[in-house]
């Protein structure tokens, strides 16, 4: 956390047994969990599943934060609204259990619910669907060049039912994934079973050009880059999921260029936009890393209909 200094950290498979916001305390961050509170069998070591967010205090001071929905297992939606401007963005943090899991759910029901929730937020300036979908999508397309979306580079050529359902959801919503459309891409799951792409970040078509960077960092590279290998004990297990880093910029009002005591003219005061970068990473709770930064370019806020 200290090495990369991220703004927002999205976690999947937290394996926590409570929704206590004070259960995880990290300096300068606030924890917002959506845990799975039941075990499938008595012999289970932990509760499995679970998602959550760690949000920097600075972001919570600058934005009004709202939990929109946490009624469905493996789905947490939150909204950030700038306190001075009307810029807002919504994040859907997702965890879909793998095929054959005792926690597997009806994919049509899950993605149908997600679709309806996303539609309810369509007036937001930016929307992110991200997380561990356990879906392998192969060369299946969710967007095409005629939509103005650049082609996606294929790393994982396999397809499964979760992948089909995820891509159908993105197509219906006119969302495209960032995976395969930026440099520094990689497999998102590397284990003794092999390599695959099952973790994603997706945005609406018209938000793709607002994302200035997307990269995938493997657990080994993340540990080496942060010089944190000494923290891994003999009984510790490194996550087999990579870290997905997304950067975007927001034109957010911070303070007026010249103070004025005349409230009647406040709508005519010019507020300069401030550049800000946000990073999202669907990853295991045990991957305590994120990404540092150069100042990105500013983009205009998308007008609401």
Write up this protein.
The chain has 305 residues and is α+β, with helices and mostly antiparallel strands. The protein has a single domain, classed as Deoxyribonuclease I, Chain A. It is 13% helix and 28% strand. It has helices spanning 57-62, 107-119, 161-173, 219-225, and strands at 8-12, 29-34, 51-56, 63-69, 75-82, 88-95, 126-132, 175-177, 189-191, 194-196, 199-204, 211-217, 243-249, 252-253, 273-274, 277-280. The strands form five sheets. The protein has a six-stranded mixed β-sheet. The chain has a three-stranded antiparallel β-sheet with strand order 1-3-2. α2 runs parallel beside α3 (161-173). The model is unreliable at 255-277 and 281-305 (pLDDT under 50).
Low-confidence segments:
255-277, 281-305
CATH class, please?
Alpha Beta
Q: Order of strands across the biggest sheet? A: 4-5-6-7-11-8
Q: What is the name of the CATH architecture?
A: 4-Layer Sandwich
Strand content: 25-35%
Task: Give the integer mean of the pLDDT values.
Answer: 80
In DSSP terms, counting alpha (H) and pi (I) runs of 4 or more, how many helices? 4
> What separation lies between the terminal Cα atoms?
38 Å
Q: Using DSSP, what is the number of strands? A: 16
CATH superfamily descriptor: Endonuclease/exonuclease/phosphatase
**Any idea what the shape is?**
globular
Give the helix/strand class: alpha+beta
- Report the C-alpha radius of gyration, rounded: 20 Å
Order of helices and strands: EEEHEEEHEHEEEEEHEEEE
